[in-house]
Specification:
The protein is built from 8 helices and 10 strands. By secondary structure, it is of the alpha+beta class. Helix 1 crosses helix 2.
């Protein structure tokens, strides 16, 4: 049976919605965030289609939603490999609260979101630009854009936008990874030379032009274009292209390694 994930900006709104649904006899269940994700997550409700009318009444009564999405079960590894939170006395970023979430326009089986950041990331962005060479810093704003796996992340002083998350648990995990990365870079700022250099973003086609374009599959991807896309997403590395590294296409090695360095690989 299709279900809907109902996302809230604040727990007070979730509680009001839940009470309204229960009073109407409408089914719902609550998905709580794991302890590691509490700084970026407000619990959300999962409701069947039959409960949507009661939810609409709750919204009419003043409950504020961040969005509604088709509910998907998280992957088994949704919380795997979450790095430890850095130890720092300076919490340059506090809570991150999702303000708006919706399916991606191009791929409706993925989601995008905008969240408000407690704190001011303005001073942090030049350090992120120096520490993450694959990202793109834009002085106007300012803002900093980078890839986290397949997910595109855009940071400004008080806001973060993320696209291509798989479902809500993945969205929470991505926001917590961003929060921890910011804290880690800021804790090491004395050893980092900040940079406001604007680097054009590396495109998939730029990487593809530096591959053999023979679709041999040695890297584990079905095509060289797929390998290029995974490199831009940070999910492949230049050395996995063995025809370039040690085969008959070694004349492409310098170019592939150079663009890999631009991507921070």
């Amino acid at each position: 049976m299709p279900e809907t994930a109902v996302v809230f900006q604040a727990e007070d709104d979730l509680e009001r919605a839940r009470r309204g649904l229960e009073a109407a006899g409408a089914a719902c269940r609550t998905v709580e965030p794991p302890p590691d994700l509490v700084p970026v997550a407000v619990p959300f409700l999962v409701i069947p289609d039959a409960s949507r009318g009661a939810l609409h009444e709750a919204v009419r009564a003043g409950v504020v939603l961040a969005g509604q999405l088709p509910y998907r079960e998280p992957d088994d590894d949704a919380l795997a490999n979450l790095p430890p939170a850095p130890h720092t006395d300076e919490a340059v970023v506090g809570r991150i609260v999702i303000a708006y979430v919706t399916p991606c326009m191009a791929t409706e089986d993925e989601i995008r979101l905008t969240a408000q950041i407690e704190g001011d990331l303005g001073p942090v962005l030049p350090y992120l630009n120096a520490a993450l060479p694959a990202g793109t810093y834009r002085p106007a704003g300012p803002s900093f854009t980078f890839m986290n796996g397949q997910r595109l992340v855009n940071l400004s002083a008080h806001r973060v936008a993320v696209s291509r998350c798989r479902e809500m648990i993945d969205a929470w995990r991505t926001l917590e990874l961003v929060r921890r990365r910011v804290l880690d870079v800021w804790s090491r700022r004395d050893a980092i030379e900040p940079s406001t250099e604007h680097r054009p973003q590396v495109t998939v086609l730029e990487v593809y032009r530096r591959t053999p374009q023979i679709n041999c599959g040695a890297c584990g991807e079905p095509t060289c274009m797929a390998f290029a896309a995974k490199m831009v997403a940070g999910e492949q590395r230049p050395e996995h292209c063995t025809p370039v590294l040690e085969g008959e296409y070694q004349h492409l090695r310098a170019g592939l390694e150079e663009i890999g360095a631009r991507l921070g690989l």
